[in-house]
UniProtKB/TrEMBL annotation, chains B, C:
Keywords: ATP-binding, Nucleotide-binding, Transport
Single GO MF annotation: ATP hydrolysis activity
SUPFAM superfamilies named among the record's database cross-references: P-loop containing nucleoside triphosphate hydrolases (SSF52540)
Entry keyword annotation includes Thylakoid: no
Gene3D superfamilies documented for this protein: P-loop containing nucleotide triphosphate hydrolases
Protein name in the entry: ABC transporter ATP-binding protein
UniProtKB/TrEMBL annotation, chains D, E:
Protein localization: Cell membrane
Organism of derivation: Litorilinea aerophila
Name of the protein this chain belongs to: ABC transporter permease
Signal peptide: none
A Pfam family of this chain: BPD_transp_1
Amino acid sequence: GCSPITPPGQGTGDVPALTPVTLGVGFIPNVQFAPFYVGIDQGFFAAEGLAINLDYGFENDYLKLVGTNQLQFMVGSGDQVVLGRAQGLPVRYIMAWYTRYPVVIFAKKDAGIVQPADLAGKRIGIPGPFGASYVALRGILEAAGLEEQDVHLESIGFTQAAAVSEGLVDAAVDYGVNGPVILAQAGIETTQIALDDYLQIPSNGLISNDQTLEQHPELARRLVRATLRSIQYTLEHPDEAFEIALKFVPEAGGENRAANRAVFDAVLAYWQRRPGTQPGATRLEDWQAAVAFMQRIGLVDSPVPAEELFTNEFVVE
Amino acid sequence: MNSSSNERAVEWPPPSSGVGQPLLVVDGVGKSFTEGPTPIRALQTVSLQVQPGEIVCLLGPSGSGKSTLLRIVGGLIRPDRGRVWFDGQPVQEPHPSMGFIFQSTNLMPWRTVLDNVLLPVEVQKGRVEARDREQAQELLALVGLDGFSHLYPRQLSGGMAQRVVLARTLLHGARLLLMDEPFGALDALTRERMNLELLRIHRLQAKTILMVTHSIAEAVFLADRVLVMSERPGRIVAQLPVDLPRPRTIDMMAGEAFGRLTLQVRRYIGEVGELD
Amino acid sequence: MNSSSNERAVEWPPPSSGVGQPLLVVDGVGKSFTEGPTPIRALQTVSLQVQPGEIVCLLGPSGSGKSTLLRIVGGLIRPDRGRVWFDGQPVQEPHPSMGFIFQSTNLMPWRTVLDNVLLPVEVQKGRVEARDREQAQELLALVGLDGFSHLYPRQLSGGMAQRVVLARTLLHGARLLLMDEPFGALDALTRERMNLELLRIHRLQAKTILMVTHSIAEAVFLADRVLVMSERPGRIVAQLPVDLPRPRTIDMMAGEAFGRLTLQVRRYIGEVGELD
Amino acid sequence: MTFEAKVKTQTDRPRGEGTSAPGHSAGWLLQHLEYLLVPVVLGLGLFVWDRLVVWQGYPPFILPAPAVVFRKFLLTLQDGTLVRHGLVTLLEVLLGLALGLSLAFVLGYWLGKHRGAERLLSPYIVASQSVPIVAIAPLLVIWFGSGLLSKVLVCGLITFFPTLVSTMVGIRNVDRDLYDLMRSLRASRWQIFRLLELPAALPIIFGGLKLSVILAVVGAVVGEFSGADVGLGFLINLARGVLDTPLMFVAVIALILLAQLLYLGVSLLESYCLRWQRAA
Amino acid sequence: MTFEAKVKTQTDRPRGEGTSAPGHSAGWLLQHLEYLLVPVVLGLGLFVWDRLVVWQGYPPFILPAPAVVFRKFLLTLQDGTLVRHGLVTLLEVLLGLALGLSLAFVLGYWLGKHRGAERLLSPYIVASQSVPIVAIAPLLVIWFGSGLLSKVLVCGLITFFPTLVSTMVGIRNVDRDLYDLMRSLRASRWQIFRLLELPAALPIIFGGLKLSVILAVVGAVVGEFSGADVGLGFLINLARGVLDTPLMFVAVIALILLAQLLYLGVSLLESYCLRWQRAA
Ligand SMILES: Nc1ncnc2c1ncn2[C@@H]1O[C@H](COP(=O)(O)OP(=O)(O)OP(=O)(O)O)[C@@H](O)[C@H]1O
Ligand SMILES: Nc1ncnc2c1ncn2[C@@H]1O[C@H](COP(=O)(O)OP(=O)(O)OP(=O)(O)O)[C@@H](O)[C@H]1O
Ligand SMILES: [Mg+2]
Ligand SMILES: [Mg+2]
C-alpha cells in the first residue's frame, strides 16, 4: 500500500535491475526530507541500483515494523534505537544524518530564557511527557541541575507556537525548525536552548535490523552510500536542493516558499558535518552517554550494551 | 342541493331557544382539512346548544364530521369559521371542565391500567394521593375491571381497554363530557351496564354529556335530545327531543314510546341516507 | 362451577355432527397468557366446527376470549392445548386461504388507502397489476370510499378506516374470513349496507365466515349459526341455528322470526350474565 | 352581564379568526425566516471570526483571517489540489459507508429480532467501538497496509455502530399489530422486512444514518492521520508541515462541506421516504 | 382418506404440543446459552490471541501474549497507575456526558418540535461534528487551557450529537393521539414532556445514549491525545513512546472496560425504564 515517489521525468520502467527499498520516514512530506528527494531526483539511489519508496507514518510504528523485519529501513532517532533494544527489538543504527539533536526549548526573546537555569519555576509547554521532546527537556533540565518538579510542565499537544505566542506558557519544547521558525515568520523573536549544547545524543539517521544487515549487507551499504551522497549534495547545493524538494512537496512553494525556505535553511545547520568526524558515523561514547542518560531519567530500566545499538561499518569506506 | 337551504338548516337551534343559559354553544362552525393534495370539507356549518345537565347524542354516517365536531368543541382543533362557547367563555383551547373520550382508545402503553386511570389526577393535581388511588380502583370495579389494575394495556381485550378509558374520564371530574363512541367495542350486555352506570353518575354528579354513538337505541335510551348529522360535509339535519322520564330503566326499552322514538330516528337517518 | 361440567359443555358439537366435511374444526382448544405477573386464563376449552359456506357469528362478553379464539384459529398464536384443523390440515401457522380482520384497524400509516388495500396482493403475488388496482378501486367504491384512495390512513375517520380494512380483506380472496368486530365503528345505516354487501359477496364467492360481533341483530341477520361464549375464561355456552331463509333482506329484520331469534340470543346472553 | 351580551361584544372583534390567522402567518414567517437566516447566521459567523482575528491579534498560524482562507480556497480549487484530495477522501468515505452500513443493517436487524443475541454480542461490539483507533492503527497498518483499505476499514468501523443501534431500535419499535397482519397474509421473511419492518423502522434508522455519514468523514480523517499520502486529512497534516495554516483551514472547511453534503443527501432521502409523515 | 381418518392418525403423535415445546426450550436454551457463551467466546478469543502470538512468533512489542498483558494489568493495578489514570478519564467522561447530554436533550427536544429550527441549525451542528479536533487543537488550548476543561469539552462535543438526534427522532415519534389526550387534560408543557414525550421517546433515546456513552470514552481519549499528562489516553501515548506495548494494551483494555461499564449501566437503566415493553 505504499506509493513510490519516483523522480519527475525519470521513468523507473527502463531500469529493470533496481532493487525496491521501502524507507519509513516519520512525519509527512516536507522540505526537511530534502536529501532523499535530491537523491531520487539526481539518481543517486538509482546509481546504487535502488528504487526508493518513501512511506510516511509514525516513527513508533516503523520501529516495530523494522524490529520484526517487516520493513528493512527507516529514518529515526538514536534514542528510539535505545528504547527498541531495551525492549528486545533487534534494531540497529547504521548511519547518522542529523549531527545535532533537533529538539530545543524556545521562548519569546523578552522572557529572558537563554540558558537551562533560566527555566526554573517557569511554565513549559510540551506535547506530552514522552518521546523526543521529553528526552530533550530532561537533558536540558539536567544541565542546570533541575528536576522535573522545578518547572511547571503543561501538556499542550502540538500547539507549541500558539502557546508561546499567546503567552500561555513561558517556553515550549519543539523541534528547532518548527516552533521557532513559525514565530520568526510571524515576526516574533525567540531564544532557544538546544539540547545538543549540553548532551550529545545520536539523532536522526538510518535504522535497520540485525537480520537485514546480516543477509543483505550490500543493500545497506548501497543505501548508506547513496544517502550520504545525497546529504552531501544538498549541503553543497542548498538552492538547487530546495527547488528539488519543492518538486516533491509543491505545497511548500508558492505563498509558503519563504517560510519553507526558512525551515530549510534552519535544518541545514543540523546536517552540517561536525569537524573531525566521519560523515554518517556515530561515536560509542555518545551512545554510552545516551544509554546512561535514558536510564537516569527512567526511560529504560535495564542497561543496554552500547555496542549493539549501532554500527559504523557501512559508513566507513 | 343549494347552500341557502343548508344555511336555513343550521339556523336551528335559534340562539335564544335555550331554557336557561346554555353550557355549550356551537355557533356556525365549519371546518375543512387542507393538508392533503385535495382539501377535504369535513364540516359545513354546525350550530347547536347544550343546556347544563343535558345529555345530547349525536348520530350520523361514517365520515360526516362527528369526531371533528367534538374536537372543535373540545378546543383541540380550530374551526375555519364560527365559534364555540363554553360556560359563557369562548373556547380557544381545551377547558379543564371538559372530559374527552376519543374514538380510538388512547392508553399509554407504558402505564399500567391503574396508572392510566390516574393520569388526569396526576396532570391536574400534580400528584396522586391514596384517596385518588382508591377512587380509581372503585371506578375500575365499576367498569368491571376489578383485579386488572396492574396489567399493561397490551394485555387487555379491546372492550376492556375501552372501559379503562371510561374509568379514566370519569375520574377526571369534568362537568361536560365529550364522548366519541365510548361503548363501541362492548358487547350488548356490558354496554347496557355501562349505559346505566353513566346515567347514574350523570344523575348524581349533574354532568352534561355530548356523545357520539352509532347505536340508535343507545342514543334514545341515554339522551334528552338526539341530533342527526348529514353525510360529509356534515351539518345537523334533524333533532329529536326524547321525552322519556328519568331515571331511565332497561324496561323502558321494551316500551311503546321507546320504539316510536327509535323508529323516528331511524326514519331521519334513512331520509339522510336517501338524500344523496 | 366445577370443571367436569365445563368439559361436558365443550363436547358440543360432537365430532361427527357435521353435514359434510367441516372446513374448520376447533378441537378442545384452551389458552392462558402467562407473560404477566399473574397468568390470565383466557380460554377454557372451546370446540366448534364450521361447514364450508357457513356464516357463524360469535357473541360474548368483553374479555371472554373471542379475539384470542380467532387468533388461534388463524394460526397467529398457539393454544396451550387442543388443536385447530382447516380443510383437513392442522393449523400451525396462518393459512393462505384465511383472511383476517383484526379488532383494531391496522392500516400501515405510510401507505395510501389504495396501497393498503393492495397489500395482500403485493404479498401474495409479489407485484401489483393494473387489474388488481382496478379491483381495489371497485372494492373501495363498494365500501363507499370512492375518491379517498390517495389519502393516508391518518386522514380518515374511524369508520372510514374500518371500511378500508374490509376492502383489503375482500381483495385477499380467502375462503375463510375471520372477522373480529369488522363493523364496530360504523353507523347503523352504513353497517346495514356493509352487511348486505358481505352477504352478496358470500353468496357469489361461496365464502365461509367466522365473525365476532357485539350486535345481536347483526349476528342473527348474517349468521347460519350464532355461538355464545361465557365470561372469562371463555367457553361456548350456547348455540342457536338461524333458520331464516337466504338471500336475506332488510325487511326480514322487522319480521316475527327475526324478533324471536334475537330475543332468544338475548336470553342466552342474559343467562350468561346472571351465571356469575 | 348575561351570556347573550357577552356573545355580542365578543363577536364584534373576530378574535377566533384573528388568532388563527397569526398562527398561519407565523408559520409562514418561520419557514421563510429559515432561508433568510442561513446567510445571516453564516455572515455573522464570518464577521465574528474576522473581528476575532483583528481584535485578539491572532497571528495567521493560529487563526488566519477569513479573507485569507477564502483566497486559499479558490486557489486550491483552481489548481485541482482540493478536488484531488477531496475525491480520495470521498471515495474512502463512500466505501467505508458501504461497508459499515451494510454490515450494520444486517447485524442490527438480527440483533433487533433477538434480544439474547444482543446481550451476547454487545460486549464485543462495544469493545470494537471503544478501542481508540490510533491505538490499533499499527495493527491495521501491519495487517492491511497503509493504503486505501485501512482507511476504508476505519471508516467502516466508525460508521457501523450508529446505524446498527438505530436499526436495532427501529426494528423493535415496529407495531406488533402489523406483524400479526403480515403473518396472517403469510408474508415471507423478506416481505415482512421490505413491506413492514423497513418502512416502519425507517424514521429511526434515518437518525442513525445521519450520525453515520458524519462519523464516516471523521473516520476517514482519523485513518488518514495515521498514515496516508493523499486525502483531506493528509492535506491537514501536510499543511501543518509546510506551515500553511490557511491551507489547513481550507482542508477543514472542505471536510465540513463534505459532511454537509452527505448530511443533506441523507436528509433529502429522509424527507422523500417519510413524505407520508407530512400528510395529515 | 377421509378427514376423520386424518385427524386420527395425526392425533397419535401430538405434533401441536411437540412443536410448541421446542420453541420454548429453544428460547430457554438461547437465554442460558448466552450466559454460557460469554465466557466461552471470551476464552476462545484469549486462546486465539495466545496462539497467534506463539505461532506467528510476534514479539511482545507487536502483540504481547495475554499472560504478559495480564501480569502488567495486575502490576499497574497494584501500584495505582491504572486507578489514577482511569479515574481522571472517568471524570472527563462523566463531566463530558453531563455537559453533552444535557445540551443534547434540550436542543434535541426543541429541534424535534420544530422542523424549521432543525433545518436552520443542522448545518452548524454538522459542522461542529465534522471538524477534526487536531485541526482546532491550538484554538482549544488557547481558549480553554490544556487542563481538564478542554477534554471535557471534546467529550461533550462528541457525545452531544447521537443523543441530540435520537431525542429529536424520539420526540417526533410520539403518538399524536396521546398528544390530543394530554392537551384535552390541559397538561402543561412540562407535564406533556414528563408524562408523555419522555416515556414515549425513551426507547429511541436509549439508542442514542448507548452511542453517546461509548463515544464519550473515545472523546476523552482523543482529547487526551492532543495534550494531557494524565488519563488512559495519555497512558497509551506514554506507552507507545517508551515502546511498552503491554502497558498500551492494559490501557486499551481499561478503556474497553470503562466503555463496557458505561454501556452496561445504560442497558440496565434501559431495561428498567422499558420494563413495560417486556410485559405482554
Ligand atoms: N386529520 C385529517 N386530515 C384530513 N382529513 C381529515 C382529518 N381528520 C378527518 N378528516 C376528514 O374529515 C371527514 C370527517 O371525519 P370525522 O372523523 O369527523 O368523521 P366521523 O363523523 O367521526 O366518522 P366516523 O363515524 O367514521 O368516525 C372525513 O372525510 C375525514 O376524511
Ligand atoms: N397478549 C396478552 N397478554 C395477556 N393477556 C391477554 C393478552 N391478550 C388477551 N389477554 C387476556 O385474555 C382475555 C381475553 O381477551 P380477548 O381479547 O380474547 O377478549 P375478547 O373476547 O376479544 O374481548 P373484547 O370483546 O373486549 O374484545 C382478556 O382477559 C385479556 O386480558
Ligand atoms: Mg369519528
Ligand atoms: Mg376482542
